[in-house]
Amino acid sequence: MTSTQSPLIILDRDGVINHDSDRYIKSPDEWLPIEGSLEAIARLTHAGWSVAVATNQSGIERGLFDINVLHAIHNKMMNAVAEKGGRIDGVFFCPHTANTACSCRKPSPGLLKILAADSAGRSTRRPSWATPCVTSRREQLLNAISGLLRRGRA
Predict the structure, then answer these.
(1) Which domains occur in the chain, in start order?
(2) Alpha-carbon torsion, ordered 78, 28, 62, 113, to 10 deg
(3) What pLDDT is attached to residue 1?
(4) Is the pTM here over 0.90, yes or no?
């Protein structure tokens, strides 16, 4: 692997990095990290992984918050990760509800295709291979990192 290549892990946001809510995360104040998630991302960063977030954010289409609020939430998340020594290389989101016929809402592959196209266009940190770990369970994230550690990849 050259210095311009790194493995990529793709994480969901709500329920993996931060606590989820049936009422949606509608402001930066409502975004609360799950214990250990920021440190796990920092550990992946230090091991040379690129970390991306792929998240459904139907609250936009529902009118619960706008794109500026979503960016503020993501800035808070990225700053919190940075404070622990980690980095999120990109955040990709679908703003649609499940009733909208779109290809970007997970589990449809559109969001991952957008992410892949973006990653392929980067000249400084081009992933050499991808490990889609788009999940909504903290335990799955921790198990994935544990497995990577056992294989010497994190």
Answers:
(1) 5-150 (3.40.50.1000)
(2) 0
(3) 41
(4) no
Q: Which of 12, 29, 66, 89 is catalytic?
A: 12
On whether the CB atoms of residues 75 and 36 are closer than 8 A, the answer is no
Interatomic CA distance for residues 99 and 31, integer angstroms: 25
More confident residue, 139 or 109: 109
Concerning whether 66 is annotated as a catalytic residue, the answer is no
CB-based contact 37:17 (threshold 8 Å): yes
b (16+ CB within 10 A) / e for 21-35: eeebbbebeebebbe
Residue 101 is classified by DSSP as -
Q: Work out the pLDDT band at 146, boundaries 50, 70, 90.
A: low
Active site residue 29: no
